[in-house]
């Protein structure tokens, strides 16, 4: 079905042996739901947050700017191009909008108010990274979609023109605009939008390289040795966006948490670490601010330069760390 070294004839496989935590440990996971886990959601609804639309509508050809929309949705403005990652604008990261993990705050920009987007990057098919309603709305703009193997079929099924879709296997590179390269890299995760289609599409991280700047979008991944290979092959990066939230020991192979993310940052060779995949949905049993607060502790111990903007806040890259403790009033 797929001519890929990462496809075993039936499903895609991880770079190293991996347990998802949702099969052999399912009863342990269910048992956790019977326990009291405090502060999994904000005491006060965060926000409202608003982006600086006049700023975002003024794109400069030699700058790197990042605006965090929450979770893994980022507007990356790099060297004259705008790239949107894993856009999820709906209320719930779920197949149902009446049930499932609910956003702590609305997206800081309405979809219709987004500036012109040059590309949309999809890391994998989970509901907190790939949303049908958001994709259909953005697809009307004829924006190119770049995704991992198999995800293109989902996009096409939602009405996205096949000419707008480009799929990547791990280690594939493409010049998507003159002097602008996109490369897919391994991640340690899994895929599936239901129980019966587990791992029938690929999951990936991405390297985005412009004429002047370069970033690593780590998406969802457990810790693995190929972070070092990614750093050696493509680094150094200006910013590495790495997931820190939705962690639990029961599924430690597929999500890093703050401690392992710090190790991944050291391996991947970047100037700034930007935590993603936290503070937006309740997807684990830890307190909703635990991932970022733990990361701040580690960063102090290991001298890790962090980039932690408020939702909707645009950071213009200058090589210097920046931390906005926006979550404090809402704990």
UniProtKB/TrEMBL annotation:
Chain ranges of the Metallo-beta-lactamase domain: 82-278
InterPro entries per UniProt: Metallo-B-lactamas (IPR001279), NAPE-PLD (IPR024884), RibonucZ/Hydroxyglut_hydro (IPR036866)
Organism taxonomic ancestry: Bacteria, Pseudomonadati, Bacteroidota, Sphingobacteriia, Sphingobacteriales
A GO term, aspect molecular function: zinc ion binding
Protein name as annotated: MBL fold metallo-hydrolase
Gene Ontology cellular component list: cytoplasm
Keyword Ubl conjugation found: no
TM region positions: none
PANTHER family on file: N-ACYL-PHOSPHATIDYLETHANOLAMINE-HYDROLYZING PHOSPHOLIPASE D
Keywords: Hydrolase
């Amino acid at each position: 079905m797929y001519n890929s070294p990462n496809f075993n004839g039936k499903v895609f496989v991880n770079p190293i042996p991996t347990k998802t935590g949702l099969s052999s440990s399912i009863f342990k996971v269910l048992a956790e739901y019977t326990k009291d886990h405090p502060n999994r959601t904000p005491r006060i609804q965060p926000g409202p947050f608003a982006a600086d639309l006049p700023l975002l509508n003024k794109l400069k050809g030699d700058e790197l700017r990042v605006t965090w929309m929450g979770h893994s949705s980022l507007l990356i403005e790099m060297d004259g191009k705008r790239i949107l990652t894993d856009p999820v604008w709906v209320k719930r990261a779920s197949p149902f909008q009446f049930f499932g993990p609910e956003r702590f705050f609305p997206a800081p920009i309405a979809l219709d108010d987004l500036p012109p987007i040059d590309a949309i990057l999809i890391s994998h098919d989970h509901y907190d990274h790939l949303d049908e309603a958001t994709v259909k709305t953005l697809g009307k703009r004829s924006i190119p979609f770049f995704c991992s193997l198999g995800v293109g079929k989902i996009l096409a099924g939602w009405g996205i023109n096949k000419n707008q879709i480009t799929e990547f296997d791990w280690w594939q590179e493409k010049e998507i605009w003159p002097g602008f390269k996109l490369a897919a890299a391994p991640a340690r995760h899994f895929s599936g939008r239901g129980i019966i289609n587990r791992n029938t599409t690929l999951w990936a991280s991405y390297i985005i390289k412009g004429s002047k700047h370069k970033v690593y979008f780590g998406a969802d991944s457990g810790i693995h040795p190929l972070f070092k290979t990614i750093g050696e092959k493509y680094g150094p990066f200006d910013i590495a966006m790495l997931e820190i939230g939705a962690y639990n020991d029961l599924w430690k192979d597929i999500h890093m948490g703050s401690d392992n993310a710090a190790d991944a940052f050291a391996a991947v060779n970047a100037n700034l670490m930007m935590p993603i995949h936290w503070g937006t949905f309740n997807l684990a049993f830890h307190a909703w601010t635990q991932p970022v607060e733990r990361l701040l502790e580690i960063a102090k111990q290991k001298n890790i330069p962090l980039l932690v903007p408020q939702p909707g806040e645009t950071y213009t890259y200058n090589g210097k760390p920046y931390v906005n403790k926006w979550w404090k009033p809402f704990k």
